[in-house]
Amino acid sequence: MEYPSKLIEDAVNEVSKLPGIGKKTALRLVLHLLKRDEDQTEILAQSLTAMRTRVKYCLKCHNLSDHDLCSICTSNKRDQSLICVVEDTRDVLAIENTAQFKGLYHVLGGIISPVEGIGPSDLQIDSLIARLRGPEGEQVREIILAISPTMEGDTTAFYLQKKLKAFNLRISTIARGVPIGGDLEYADEVTLGRSILSRIAYD
């Protein structure tokens, strides 16, 4: 593709590196930015720079935060007896959007994946154990493993269960089964099998 400007070409190449954005979409976005007032584009640039340089990881749960401790860890309205272990920040956002969980989180920063060379030492597992051994651990009664039901996710959950056995805690996992509005005939065998095994009483 021929560009009328090398600067536009450079901008398109950078924007197209974002996930899910091809060259055509990148060009459309770049041309849109050119049409906007210069101060609006400057605000966008400043916001991106501030995000990249000032956003940090919470020292306790490893969620993204503007401060050393995130707003969830510092809130006195959260249930200190519950810690939900998740893979990354996107999972925290998804669970928070349900407004059903009022406990704390612990973000692993990934899952165990030998194929990708990711082992337990590459994740925030030791810091979870340290939390449970510290003063905070005295209040914790349950650990919820909210990890994706993939082979790597199950491997990670199994490893965590073994590590957490040393503590007098209830270890649970999120329910897995047929989604609401789903048809049984379209459910895969593993999901349907787990739904049968994890059946609940009909109230």
Automatic annotation (TrEMBL):
Keywords: DNA damage, DNA recombination, DNA repair, Metal-binding, Zinc, Zinc-finger. This is Recombination protein RecR. May play a role in DNA repair. It seems to be involved in an RecBC-independent recombinational process of DNA repair. It may act with RecF and RecO. A zinc finger (C4-type) spans 58-73. The keyword Zinc applies. InterPro entries: DNA_Rcmb_RecR, Rcmb_RecR, Rcmb_RecR_Znf, TOPRIM_dom, TOPRIM_RecR. Residues 81-179 form the Toprim domain. PANTHER family: RECOMBINATION PROTEIN RECR (PTHR30446). Belongs to the RecR family. Gene3D superfamilies: 3.30.60.80, 3.40.1360.10, 6.10.250.240, RecR Domain 1 (1.10.8.420). It comes from the Bacteria. Pfam families: RecR_C (PF21175), RecR_HhH (PF21176), RecR_ZnF (PF02132), Toprim_4 (PF13662).
